[in-house]
Amino acid sequence: MMNRLKCILTYDGAHFEGYQIQKEKRTVQLEVQKALSRIHKGTEIKVSASGRTDAGVHAVGQVLHYDSPLTITDAAWQKALNAHLPKDIWVKKVESVSGDFHARFDVVKKEYRYKVSLAKDFNVFDRAQVFHYPYPLDLEAVTEACGHFLGEHDFTSFCSAKTEVEDKVRTIYSIDVELKGEDLEFRIVGNGFLYNMVRIIVGTLLEIGQGKKLPRDIFSILEARDRGAAGKTAPAHGLYLWNVVYDDN
User: Fold this and answer.
1) Are the beta carbons of 17 and 25 closer than 8 angstroms?
2) Tens-digit pLDDT profile for the chain (249 aa)?
3) Rounded to two decimals, what is the model's pTM?
4) What is each CA distance from 243 to 65, 124, 149, 159, 165, in whole angstroms?
5) Catalytic residue IDs
């Protein structure tokens, strides 16, 4: 009899080539499956996640599931996994779920956050966690532009041209921007996100903050359905998969 486990984990993406397994590269999925294999005495246990994260992207609330024949408590699962995982991955919670739960297909919405430092001086200790952007920004313009993303839109202009997904319609529930001292944080919640979508949105908003684009330009950029119409892609290291929401949350 197989038991399905839901796992919430956090990781520092600085030294990973992304979440998904890639040949001869260090990835989060590989490290998790190696840990599970050790716990299962060499048996391969595959995991399914809520979605991929790119090289350098971090996670605070990534969710995955796996099936196991072992019968141990949720707390024991958490302890066992953390004992076998490298220190840049940490399992926050493990819970038993029904066999029809799926970490990817049951997602209701996701929250991403993007961290920017506007400080003049570069903090070397934040080099892999925060995007250093030492330029003056018009936050009123940025906030105004955020509102134009709300609702259902075709986000072709805000995803990588490399994406293989045909349906590029997504719904954005909220975009907030908060300044604390010299630290700027973007919080974006939606029903799903395309490849590089959050990073392109942030890059475009930063250009609006500098006056290179106007808040109302968001409408024409969305209508263009052309990646070249939007701003630059913000670097991966400022991005965090913050939370994944399911019906039972």
Assistant:
1) yes
2) 899 999 999 999 999 999 999 999 999 999 999 999 999 999 999 999 999 999 999 999 999 999 999 999 999 999 999 999 999 999 999 999 999 999 999 999 999 999 999 999 999 999 999 999 999 999 999 999 999 999 999 999 999 988 888 999 999 999 999 999 999 999 999 999 999 999 999 999 999 999 999 999 999 999 999 999 999 999 999 999 999 999 875
3) 0.96
4) 15, 27, 20, 21, 23
5) 54
Rounded to whole angstroms, the Cα distance separating 48 from 144 reads 37
Residue type (1 letter), 72: I
Task: Using alpha carbons, list the distances in angstroms from residue 113 to 52, 108, 177, 199, 205.
Answer: 15, 17, 10, 10, 14
CA distance 93 to 8: 5
